[in-house]
Amino acid sequence: MPDVDIQLSWCDVKSYCDNTENNTSELNSIFAKVDDRRRKRDVPDYLCGKISFEILRDPVITPSGITYERKDIEEHLQRVGHFDPVTRVKLTQDQLIPNFAMKEVVDAFLQENEWALDY
User: What is the pLDDT of residues 1-32, one digit of tens each?
Assistant: First the structure.
């Protein structure tokens, strides 16, 4: 009779170990997904404005080729002066051109990374 008890105990131990291995694998998979999501929560610098460092919503490009968020560069021109804050070249509001290519890139990024809408 004692051999039967030992056999049952061995089966219990093996079952417990199998469950533990499965649970460990599941936990490792979950942690890997969380790490991947955390890693992906970085907004690339090229999608952010040069003045506010926020994601570009209405990007405009200057004659010198620098892209800004429209409201930020317009505010700069009104409050600070009529010059490009990076190049210091004379700049007026009518020289700002919508940067449709950058807008497409930002929109695509936001579609794939909805968490960034609150960034």
Answer: 555 555 556 666 667 667 777 778 888 888 88
Residues 51 and 69: beta-carbon distance below 8 Å: yes
Sequence ranges of the domains in the chain: 1-39, 45-118
Is residue 12 packed enough to be buried (19+ CB in 10 Å), middle (13-18) or exposed (0-12)? exposed
Report how far Cα 43 is from the mean position of its chain's Cα atoms.
4
pLDDT digits (tens, 9 = 90+) for 36-67: 666 667 899 999 999 999 999 999 999 999 99
Q: Which fold has domain 45-118?
A: Herpes Virus-1 (3.30.40)
Measured CA to CA, the distance from residue 83 to residue 54 in angstroms comes to 21
| Spatial separation of the C-alpha atoms in residues 11 and 6, rounded to whole Å | 9
